[in-house]
Amino acid sequence: MSREDYSDTLRVLVATDCHLGYMEKDEIRRHDSFKAFEEICSIAEEKQVDFLLLGGDLFHENKPSRTTLVKAIEILRRHCLNDKPVQFQVVSDQTVNFQNAFGHVNYEDPHFNVGLPVFSIHGNHDDPAGVDNLSAIDILSACNLVNYFGKMVLGGSGVGQISLYPILMRKGSTTVALYGLGNIRDERLNRMFQTPHAVQWMRPEVQEGCDVSDWFNILVLHQNRVKSNPKNAISEHFLPRFLDFIVWGHEHECLIDPQEVSGMGFHITQPGSSVATSLIDGESKPKHVLLLEIKGNQYRPTKIPLTSVRPFEYTEIVLKDEGDIDPNDQNSILEHLDKVVRNLIEKASKKAVNRSDIKLPLVRIKVDYSGFMTINPQRFGQKYVGKVANPQDILIFSKASKKGRSEANIDDSERLRPEELNQQNIEALVAENNLKMEILPVNDLDVALHNFVNKDDKLAFYSCVQYNLQETRGKLAKDSDAQKIEEDDLILKVGECLEERLKDRSTRPTGSSQFLSTGLTSENLTKRSSGIANASFSDDEDTTQMSGLAPATRGRRGSSTANTSRGRAKAPTRGRGRGKASSAMKQTTLDGSLGFRQSQRSASAAASASFKSASANEEDDVDSPSSEEAEPEHFNKLDSTSEDDENTKGKGRKRPATTKRGRGRGSGTSKRGRKNESSSSLHRLLSKDDDEDEDDEDIEKKLNRSQPRVTRNYGALRR
């Protein structure tokens, strides 16, 4: 190439799916991904390319280990930081292209000598996640080693809206517009492409001496291409016709030669992965990277093989087609499979390029055992330890179905890769199985799953359950006919409450119906949302606020302020409970951290036992100085259906009660009051913690304990 041609030719090395850190705990294969990436960077230096372009999945894990991060940074620092001049310039608005704290391409930083710029999008393995929407590639970008682009913010309503701004590059007379689209869930992106104006492509402005048609347009994306399910793949025909060249990541089969799409006018290259992550036929093909040379509106591709990749041999056999196998003799099957494995190992050794560094090969045999017995793959592979890199999974057995026989030419690569499985949300699963949610609304469960996965919120499901239980209890407690609810109608009543809550939410502003923290009722949700969204269980004040999930109707274990008479002062009080916690807050904190024990009785048994109780229960309130935590005001509101203790009298027979000892006993006065029997039994039913959750050992001790002498001040015996 002449000097004039060199100054006008942009040279790009293209690679995708490096999967750094794959099998990092395997003693044999742990270094494979790093050796391949090191070779890619070495090729880039050797060929003197202008920059290295990566098509996603640089890391195998969303949260790579420290070992993986350190090795990746070492490789990039070794090959990218030098004093070689960069021959091209970025002429677009870099603050739009690179969404980080610095907002410019890394080689323009005066504090770094970057001789090999690296441009990368994210894939489905290293996609952004968490509250700050950060990816592992953001770490490399903050280290000024990688230019991270193609990170989209899904704005708008409904399916969302994205805008693709190109990175405009110029080298001599050659101008290139580089578009990047990081991985988006295939089903959603599919709908976005079919929604008008949901995907907007920004074109370069017309400048003097440079028309829009003079730009060479490249797109890098990381999505499903094989259409095993049309809704979970992206069709080439969704893409605009002004594109010239497309780098397609995510598909691991190496189809490096550019293929023209009929009727679209652009070419697609699929470099594939640089390390085999699935033992399938598509991964066994030789691995390559692509050297792309662009001058004007023309390009020249050159594929370069990777020599450091571990050899991989794949074959399929059908036992019934082999003449030397007896279906009733397992030894004949073993002998035939041994012969096949030895042939594959020998074939792999002949392909080795570097004889001084011969790697143990990967071997996979897919066996159709229709009409034959299977053998243990692990036991079969033990004899090949030290001869192959994957002795534990050399064999994979399958039976060809009738449909599979007629469609034997279908590539099953998508069926075997877990990341390609159909992704559904909870709403779709519930609708598909005709499930009816009795207490938890589907939308709340969907939000909880989203927060748990994407925002790493460990208490997402706990908050969802507690918020909805609290809301249901509040609805039932406020019902004027709560005392008349019969046992058989309780489930129907809960279902009606769910419908009422959903109607109430539909009338609220958007976003107000979402649960924010544990145990917030619908009354105080808007008042306390800011202080509880990030509640900490280690802080007494925060935990006290979160103890609001215990409703006033839990007369057995919770606070009994709702049972005080009208003339009593509103001092901090403590219920009888089991006597071990100074307030409901302590019990909630312990249960939240250890997990609530499941009651041994069914819900119907609990309801039956509750409603068959015909005796009046006498409640006593003990003022204790050790319970200084302020109770939320809505506690008294929730128990508005129960009458005052001084005016209400039950008709049931009194029973003697055992005393319960609690921490920090106070010297406060004790009063007694009575509720009518149906109200007491209903409140016991609505109580969050069932009496059955006590340890068997504690129950035995309490049964063996001598009963104290009965006086009027002790109250009713707890059943």
TrEMBL record:
Gene3D superfamilies: 3.60.21.10, Mre11, capping domain (3.30.110.110). Its cofactor is Mn(2+). It holds the Pfam family Metallophos. SUPFAM superfamilies: Metallo-dependent phosphatases (SSF56300). Residues 299-452 form the Mre11 DNA-binding domain. GO terms for cellular component: Mre11 complex; site of double-strand break. One of its GO terms (biological process) is meiotic DNA double-strand break formation. Its main location: nucleus. Residues 617-631, 689-698 have a biased composition (Acidic residues). Residues 533-719 are annotated as: Disordered. Residues 596-616 have a biased composition (Low complexity). Keywords: Chromosome, DNA damage, DNA repair, Endonuclease, Exonuclease, Hydrolase, Manganese, Meiosis, Metal-binding, Nuclease, Nucleus. The active site is at H125 (proton donor). GO terms for molecular function: 3'-5'-DNA exonuclease activity; manganese ion binding; single-stranded DNA endodeoxyribonuclease activity. It is found in: Chromosome; Nucleus. InterPro entries: Calcineurin-like_PHP, Metallo-depent_PP-like, Mre11, Mre11_capping_dom, Mre11_DNA-bd, Mre11_N. Residues 567-579, 650-664 have a biased composition (Basic residues). Core component of the MRN complex, which plays a central role in double-strand break (DSB) repair, DNA recombination, maintenance of telomere integrity and meiosis. The MRN complex is involved in the repair of DNA double-strand breaks (DSBs) via homologous recombination (HR), an error-free mechanism which primarily occurs during S and G2 phases. The complex (1) mediates the end resection of damaged DNA, which generates proper single-stranded DNA, a key initial steps in HR, and is (2) required for the recruitment of other repair factors and efficient activation of ATM and ATR upon DNA damage. Component of the MRN complex composed of two heterodimers RAD50/MRE11 associated with a single NBS1. PANTHER family: DOUBLE-STRAND BREAK REPAIR PROTEIN MRE11. This is Double-strand break repair protein.
